[in-house]
Amino acid sequence: MHIHINTTHSHIQPYGVMIIMSFLVGAVGMYILNKRKGVQKRIALYMLLLLPVMSLFCAVMLTYITSGGKSYGLSSVGGLVGVYAAVITMGLISPSRNDLPVMAETATVMLPLMYSVSKIGCFLAGCCHGFDYDGIFAVEYSGRNAHECPAFPVQASETLTFLIIFLIGVILYTKKKRYAVQVIFITSASAKCALDFLRASHEGIILSLTQIFCIILAFIGIVWLILKMKKANA
Amino acid sequence: MIVNYYGICGCECIWDQKGVFLAAPGGVQVQSLQQLGFYTAQDGRWYKQLSPQESAYLNSMQNMSVVDLPAQGTSFGMTPNITFDVETPEDKKKANTMCIISLLLMFCVNPLIVAISRNGYENITSISGFSGLAALILMIYVRVKYPKNTFGKVLMIVYIALFILGLIGIILLMAMCASCMKDCHGF
């Protein structure tokens, strides 16, 4: 069974719409969680304003820097860096010292959902596609971003994987499991790193730049988990 | 007794012959303490003598371990010496200066960098984004630290309007590009 997608869209580009949707979902979700966790309403509102701008800026900048200043594009890792940059900025501005760790936690919980939604855009636009594959659920792209061979539905796999991570993460977080946030962080970085092997762009290389970033992030997550464990034991 | 005084949590309440005093906990921003009328003593701690109304209220709550002042939803006829919401001339000056810097970064530095980059210095285009971002952060800083500043409020409304217009612009541009590409399909 193959999935056929026409990448020529009449007026509304699904990629752009899904990117906007992912920022909207992430920012609103963070606002709700921040409010529930006791962050001041005005701080949560300003976060709502800063988060999309900073995330988008870092997403574009990372592609610009890694391409040696030759091209612009949206990088998911850059977007992630932007989200945490916005969290740190708002945490430093906020008069309450507790806001920074709370906002860092809520951002970690919401990021898998943001990524999941944005990947629907990639799936419909035909970018970031998977390796050549002719099995079940193979995707045939026609139109503007047509591919000669059917591809593995890596974007759909990413959407599904990160949606599951988000749902499990929210359950763990709302049940106040001690290491929920750190587990979400490490799982997200590992999943992103593993799924990158399935991309067509990965052919011929051992580790992509995204995977190197993900390994670094997973390492940071493990350090974060160890520190929290030590703190809990102390 | 612990008193949460206008958002400063964990103030220690001290009954003295001269009156009732609050000692602020460590780590609270100096500016917030000054705005609420706290002063530093020789021991380095921040103190504030409470008004008779505030003292009377705390006396009536002596059996409580933690007291919010002012109590939520009630005023008890108190007219606390609220300096927290009042903008001092110094604050106004600082806030206005930051707002002007923010405005310059957004509407002068930003277009200037774009104009320079179009004249052969393409590598500096990215800096325009930095200046815009710095302008936004500065505006948020002013709104959080000096919430009563009118310039800050106006700046916030302007930036939000720009943000919404930018979003609409992007959507329209996307639709326009898609339409153009569709029209040019056969060429």
Automatic annotation (TrEMBL), chain A:
<protein>
    <submittedName>
        <fullName>Prolipoprotein diacylglyceryltransferase</fullName>
    </submittedName>
</protein>
<keyword id="KW-1133">Transmembrane helix</keyword>
<feature type="transmembrane region" description="Helical">
    <location>
        <begin position="113"/>
        <end position="132"/>
    </location>
</feature>
<dbReference type="GO" id="GO:0042158">
    <property type="term" value="P:lipoprotein biosynthetic process"/>
</dbReference>
<dbReference type="GO" id="GO:0005886">
    <property type="term" value="C:plasma membrane"/>
</dbReference>
<keyword id="KW-0472">Membrane</keyword>
<dbReference type="Pfam" id="PF01790">
    <property type="entry name" value="LGT"/>
</dbReference>
<keyword id="KW-0812">Transmembrane</keyword>
<feature type="transmembrane region" description="Helical">
    <location>
        <begin position="204"/>
        <end position="227"/>
    </location>
</feature>
<feature type="transmembrane region" description="Helical">
    <location>
        <begin position="72"/>
        <end position="93"/>
    </location>
</feature>
<keyword id="KW-0808">Transferase</keyword>
<dbReference type="GO" id="GO:0008961">
    <property type="term" value="F:phosphatidylglycerol-prolipoprotein diacylglyceryl transferase activity"/>
</dbReference>
<dbReference type="InterPro" id="IPR001640">
    <property type="entry name" value="Lgt"/>
</dbReference>
<feature type="transmembrane region" description="Helical">
    <location>
        <begin position="12"/>
        <end position="33"/>
    </location>
</feature>
<feature type="transmembrane region" description="Helical">
    <location>
        <begin position="152"/>
        <end position="172"/>
    </location>
</feature>
<keyword id="KW-0449">Lipoprotein</keyword>
<feature type="transmembrane region" description="Helical">
    <location>
        <begin position="45"/>
        <end position="66"/>
    </location>
</feature>
Automatic annotation (TrEMBL), chain B:
<keyword id="KW-1133">Transmembrane helix</keyword>
<keyword id="KW-0812">Transmembrane</keyword>
<protein>
    <submittedName>
        <fullName>Uncharacterized protein</fullName>
    </submittedName>
</protein>
<feature type="transmembrane region" description="Helical">
    <location>
        <begin position="154"/>
        <end position="176"/>
    </location>
</feature>
<feature type="transmembrane region" description="Helical">
    <location>
        <begin position="123"/>
        <end position="142"/>
    </location>
</feature>
<keyword id="KW-0472">Membrane</keyword>
<feature type="transmembrane region" description="Helical">
    <location>
        <begin position="98"/>
        <end position="117"/>
    </location>
</feature>
